[in-house]
Amino acid sequence: MSGDYGRSRHNDLETGGSRNYPDDEGSGPFDIVRTKRAPIDRLKKWRQAALVLNASRRFRYTLDLKKEEERKQLIAKIRMHAQVIRAAVLFQAAGQGISVPRPSKSPSSPTRIGDFGLSSEELVQMNREHDLSLLQQCGGVNGVAEKLKSNPEKGVPGDENDILERKNTFGSNTYPRKKGKNFWTFVWEACRDTTLIILMVAAAASLALGIKTEGIKEGWYDGGSIAIAVFIVIVFTAVSDYKQSLQFQVLNEEKQNIQMEVVRSGRRTKVSIFDLVVGDVVPLKIGDQVPADGLVITGHSLALDESSMTGESKIVHKDPTREPFLMSGCKVADGYGSMLVTSVGINTEWGLLMASISEDNGEETPLQVRLNGVATFIGIVGLAVAVAVLIILVVRFFTGHTRNSDGSVQYRAGRTSVGDAIDGFVKIFTVAVTIVVVAVPEGLPLAVTLTLAYSMRKMMADKALVRRLSACETMGSATTICSDKTGTLTLNQMTVVEVYACGGKLDSPENKSLLPPRVLSLLSEGIAQNTTGSVFVPEGGGALEISGSPTEKAILQWGLNIGMDFSAVRADSKIIHAFPFNSEKKRGGVAVKLSNSEVHVHWKGAAEIVLACCTGYIDANDSVAQMDEDKLSFFKKAIEDMAVGSLRCVAIAYRMYEMDKIPTSDEELDNWQLPEGELILLAIVGIKDPCRPGVREAVQLCVDAGVKVRMVTGDNLQTARAIALECGILGSNENATEPYLMEGKSFRSMTDSQRLDVADKISVMGRSSPNDKLLLVQALRKRGHVVAVTGDGTNDAPALHEADIGLAMGIQGTEVAKESSDIIILDDNFASVVKVVRWGRSVYANIQKFIQFQLTVNVAALIINVVAAVSSGNVPLNAVQLLWVNLIMDTLGALALATEPPTDHLMRRAPVGRREPLITNIMWRNLLIQALYQVTVLLILNFRGISILKLTPDASGRAVRIRNTLIFNAFVFCQVFNEFNARKPDQMNVWKGVTKNRLFMGIVGLEVVLQVMIIFFLGKFASTVRLSWKLWLISIIIGIMSWPLAVVGKLIPVPERPLSEFFTRRQKNPSGGEDSLAKRHLEDESVLKSTG
């Protein structure tokens, strides 16, 4: 890494540099840097420590700990109920004897709708009780399919009328969800704010006293104006919260809308899980979620993880005869196959489970917890100030030191009536309570959910679906991204471009005349049978449709190009046993029995691994030749040459096998290990998968932002190296050596301490297993990194779970990977990952803008009222005015500043340390300069305003009201103009891009319009008078002066060391100082860069 960048990491004070701290939690209740899998007692601790005025609102978007416990208990009950039913059925079956088919317990009068041979009730009973006898009575899986007018191979017809009829007969694959809160619920929750309740009580008392003393015509203003102001605050708050909740509802629906592959009319097509119908045929592979209850049609080593339904993490093997029943919500742990859907929606156990539990999408984020800490601290200070003001004003009032605007004493012992005395006390009490409203920043933690809701909605447009709120902000702190290669950095559009067969290289991969008949036949057999893909031939002619993974599609397409007839080959041989491809062994195999009773075992996988198992190859004369050293070296060199050319190398091999050696019983066959040795090589294919356009720029953007990109791939190391050089992960060929370039097995064989030392340096890891990826993530996190990991396979789940941010691929990703992830990248594109980093940083930056703005208002309002109260016994800003300021500061301010879109500037600075102070030195400087200016100007106006403005004091107190109105007006305009300053805390040009943010401009405009209306038309309510144009000009000039003042302030240098460190001793990192990891990381980076 360059020296310039190293310096910029320490000089960028807005982010507080990039110190690395250990991942363990601090001692404070609000010191939770990672809420992902945080212990419940930690979550309880910070809730109890927070100073909260309105718990229902403050904790709305946090995990409801009580409901979570109830939810777990309910799930356990439903699981227990399902197991009891099954246990009873099994007990009954055992008692009657397995061999004797017992009479079916089908419903006495099943209600059959339409022309189907089975009713919904019969299907539900069969599946729920795992009733094999009822299944046998129906003719097995094929019989059930026939009764449901479905074909085990071609599925349902799939036309609109057929789908509609099935939905009407058997129901849709949806379950009743609990409705979201309506608007009035949010109004009620806003009303539950403690201070607002106290204000309403005070308003009622003031109203009663006012009407009693002054009559209803004049006496209702004081109490009524406070009541109306509180009502406006409640409505604004409720509208803002309601709109926010609607955004979360839309995002939650998007999360649940899984796209499934189904077979309809013989064609594989993708549909929403909600559009699945009874009779559908669904292909299943490792990592898929079973979308509905159903029966196994075909299964090869098919095994399911049923823990989501049974609570037991036991893998259950499934087959069409002994264990055919599949439960919705379970995950495919191994193998592949297909299923017939028999029950959907509420008729499944999963549907019942989901309908019974209320989904609590609440989840606190680290920033939210920290902001609760900030709000608590400010709130305690504000509360102390409010109590002090209350005591001072009450003492002054009852000792006769408080005067009216005409100079008369407000309270005279023995002369002032009880009503007037109570009225005076209520007004004082109201001001004190209003100071608490302004001082306790209740909206501060909620600003996080506001900016997250906004960011998540915008990120959907940028092809990123956020599953966990905290991931969105944690991404802003990411220091490294461990990315897959295939489909993320590359296009995932694969084609076979080179072929080695018959002992040499083919001039053209598609020239089948170069391949002898036997090789062609065996290749066709191996390609058609050893695949999870398929080829669909349209009945009316037209182009063939190939489905499957991109690698499968490329090889199937090549097979078709050399004359393979997919359907004929599949019909001519039958699969006996399959070993599905897995990322540990890097290969998959299948044993097939031909029509002449011969058995062939076909293998396909990573070229060098399959080649190592080969003892022969078929030569140009169509005969088997020995794989001698020369030929082995030739093929190894071919693999290396293709890999250097960034081709993915796949070898296809086979062997004969004796029929009498194949296990005869189903149980033995399930556990049979396919023979892996003495293979005969048929072909090695080189598959081209070009780099994504723009990926090099995206990687460079990460480098500029201080985020190191690492490629972790299962591909050949040389292929990975070629792609890494092409997309800029490796700077040059000189970098392409250990430890920057490493194989997974080398990393795996190291000790823990060696892995810690080398982890930082790794840029590319090839031939890595999912466990290698997990080890790398763990090592990087121990080094103090905030790690983002991309993954698509089932085996990536542990690494996605362990990482600070797990990013699953939306197109190629399995459901297991997606469920373990925090964010789903919908287009599988690395550029979208970088956009997530931008948004993550934007969340943090927006919150800092809002904190700076809000604290400026807090400090200024508190100081002005306290100083005025102590010195004169009166406050220039009354309850209604403070409530309006609070509205600007909390709801409107959050809307304006928390919804700023990300800028390029965010990607030119270092990642934000997760333990960095929220309020940086730059922010302290900005807010203190602005608060000091506001306090000084407004206090001068408060004490000398009448003489400066040349107002004539009179008995009616108009001069005092003009002065107080000017103070209020100038104070509001100071906040309006300071909102612009808050947009760019560390940049001179605060107007850059402001016109593009229509929401910001709209809110500022609304604030100005409402302020004008208050002064001109609502004087009675706000205790203001109309101002002359000169005083309006003075108000605006006082406000606008905050702009040049901000520019001058930004020229003042601030210390590098955060202010908090001057008062607290930093906990040392166990590895020898808090900065040691960062420094070592910088050194490693600079070595890598300097060689580039």
UniProtKB/TrEMBL annotation:
High-level lineage: Eukaryota, Viridiplantae, Streptophyta, Embryophyta, Tracheophyta
Cell compartment(s), UniProt: Endomembrane system; Membrane
Residues that span the membrane, as ranges: 186-208, 220-239, 374-398, 428-454, 850-870, 922-941, 961-978, 999-1019, 1031-1052
Name this polypeptide is given: Calcium-transporting ATPase
SMART domains according to UniProt: Cation_ATPase_N
Family: Belongs to the cation transport ATPase (P-type) (TC 3.A.3) family. Type IIB subfamily.
Keyword Metal-binding: yes
Domain Cation-transporting P-type ATPase N-terminal as annotated: residue spans: 128-211
UniProt organism field: Penstemon davidsonii
Catalytic activity: Ca(2+)(in) + ATP + H2O = Ca(2+)(out) + ADP + phosphate + H(+)
UniProt KW RNA-binding keyword: no
